[in-house]
Amino acid sequence: MFWAEWATGKITSGDKDGSNVTDIVTGLSxxxxxxxxxxxxxxxxxxxxxxxxxxxxxxxxxxxTLVTAAAGLSNTWGLDLDVAGGKMYFTDFGNNFxxxxxxxGSNVEDLGIGGLSGAYGIDVDSTNGKIYWADITTxxxxxxxxxGSNVEDxxxxxxxxYDVTLxxxxxxxxxxxxxDISRANMNxLNSNIESVITTGLGIPYGIDLDIxxxxxYYTDDGAAKSIRxxxxxxLNSNIENVVTGLSxxGxxxxxxxASEPVPEPATLFLLGSALFGLLPFRKKSH
Length: 286
Fold this sequence. Notes:
Layout: E1 2-5, E2 10-13, E3 22-25, E4 31-37, E5 42-47, E6 52-57, E7 64-67, E8 78-82, E9 87-92, E10 97-102, E11 109-110, E12 119-125, E13 130-135, E14 140-145, E15 152-156, E16 163-167, E17 172-177, E18 180-185, E19 194-197, E20 207-210, E21 215-220, E22 226-231, E23 240-243, E24 249-253, H1 265-276
Antiparallel strand pairs: 1-2, 1-24, 2-3, 4-5, 5-6, 6-7, 8-9, 9-10, 10-11, 12-13, 13-14, 14-15, 16-17, 17-18, 18-19, 20-21, 21-22, 22-23
C-alpha cells in the first residue's frame, strides 16, 4: 500500500500488515491525494502545495511531473485512475471542478460538472462508466458518467465528507465523514445506508478496500496519526492499528483494489508474449 504525508512532504509504501514501511519519495511540498497503477507499477499523487500531479515507479525512482498549475490546478484533494481507459480523474477544491487527463498528463479536460462546492475524494467505476466523488461543502456523495454528464446524488446530508471508494461487484460505495465511515448502495439515493466504523475516528482523510481480505483501510489525521483497518462487514469489527506514529497522513491506495484490478496471470502472459516474442513473462509479486 501507499500513502501521502502532507505535512512532511513524502510518499510512503508498506505492506498491508504494516511491515516494510519505506519513504519512497521525499522533499515534496504537500502531497495529499494518491492513486496506484498496478499494471504499470506506478504511483501517482497530487501535491496541493505546488499544484502538481506527479508519478513515480513503486520504488520512488523516475519521478515525472504530469499536470501543473498551468492546467488550472488549485488544491487537488482527489485523484483516481482508469488505467484501462488511459485516464486520470482529479478534483480541485480551489476552483470547484473535476477534470481528467491522459495518464501521461496530456489532454486535460474539464468535465463541466456544475454545482461543485468542495470536491474532495474521487473514485472511478470503469466497469459501469462512472465517477463518484465526495463534496465536503454540499455534504453529498455524487456520481456522473466518465464524460461528466448525468450528475446524480447518491448520498446526502453527510457532514465533512472526505473520501469515497467502491466495491463495484457488491454495488457499494464507502465514504468517510466526520466521525463515521459508512456505505450505501451505488444505485439510488440514500439507499441502504450502513455505518461501518463509528468509534475512535479523528479525521479519516483516506479510505480504500482490500476486497479479498474483507478489510477497509483508512488514514486518521486526528489525534491517532495512523493507518488502521477493520472488517468492512459489521460495525466496528476487528479494528486494528496498521501503521502508527505518522505525521499527517492524507489519502492511501492499496494494490489491486476494486477499481484498479491487477490483470490475471494468463492476461499478463499473453501481453508479455506479444511484446517479447513469446519469452516467459513473470508477474511481479506484491
